[in-house]
Hints:
Blueprint: E1 38-40, E2 45-46, H1 48-55, E3 60-63, H2 70-85, E4 90-98, H3 102-109, H4 118-122, H5 124-127, H6 132-144, E5 149-153, H7 156-165, H8 172-175, H9 187-199, H10 211-236, E6 239-243, H11 255-262, E7 268-274, E8 286-289, H12 296-300, E9 302-307, E10 310-316, H13 321-325, E11 332-336, E12 339-340, H14 344-357, E13 361-367, E14 370-376
Parallel strand pairs: 3-6, 3-7, 4-5, 4-6, 7-8
Antiparallel strand pairs: 1-2, 1-8, 9-10, 10-11, 11-12, 11-13, 13-14
Amino acid sequence: MLNGYNFFFLASIFIILAGCAPKHPVWVEDIEPRPGDFFSGDGRQLSPHELAQQIKDHDYILVGESHDNLCDHEVQASIIDLLGREDVDLVLGLEMVNVRKHKVLEEFNQGGMTLEELPERLHWDQNWGYDFDLYRPVFARALEHSVPVKALNVPSEIVRKISHYGLEGLDQEEMLYLPREIIPPPRDQLDHLERQYEIHLEFIPEDRAELEHFIQAQSVWDSQMAGMASYWRQRTSRTVLILAGNEHVRRGWGIEHRLLEIDPDASITRVVPVRDPEDISRENPFYFFCPPAHQGRMRLGLVASEENGRVFLRGVVPGSAADEAGLKGGDEILRAGAAKVSAMSDLHRAAKEALESEVPILFEVLRHGEVKTFEVDLVR
């Protein structure tokens, strides 16, 4: 999931930084925004009450995020609070939880488990990888306002398999988790995906370098989220508040495009994060300001993939901490800090611990049959 936004289907292949300039920039008053300030797409600053009034009557409200940005999640929680205070009947749909965990969320919704128990029951670290504490404010507000939380996602291992081998690589059981209809991207998004694919082609293993599979994975992910959101809208007659990575929300490309195919008469709006008020444009109806996150996962600069319980480097971001330490594409990461590495979430955890303790991470890697160690300093 670029410029701090996580591009979901590449998350298992590489971690990247990129940006997209708005096509239609607007004039924004020269102000120093505070984290959590809201703006309309024409650049006008909105009070929280004004935002709530303008979004509350929609069938679907999509709110974007950078997964590693705590401010984004705090704003998402505040939107739940604002709508709750307006007595909007909400269902909260999450990209972060796959449909296999539906029963766990139902138990949570019905008061059968505490917020403290939830991450373990969801297998959060294994299935999502970003620290649960980043999302804790969201769950806490949903609990406070009795907003039922629903899973929207295809299991990530199935999407990974599609991105590697295509739909034909799935077995019959895995096919059951696919959306009823797989809706392709709109033309503008397809052009964007093709550019991103070409830029990062060198990091994709040769036996998996199929643009068609790359597009299929994106389409399955977004189509499933839209399909599940529509299901809960029809089932409950409530407004569905969808939280997802910004690449699935901005410009109406991802989830919204699919929702309009499934539910053509739906009223949809979206609120996306912005890191600089000058980037506000009419491409999106609403924005909230949060400064960029400075999380260890991005600072590491690792271009990595996870395969059968092993994590390999496909490359490193030039000038990053990993690059300066001497890590290279082709290295298999054996240990990060005191822990063995068998999943991408292990790298995230090691980076977080290193930042909190302000000590370098000692990486142990296998390179050309020889075990080597490298010290990566994130606090520079």
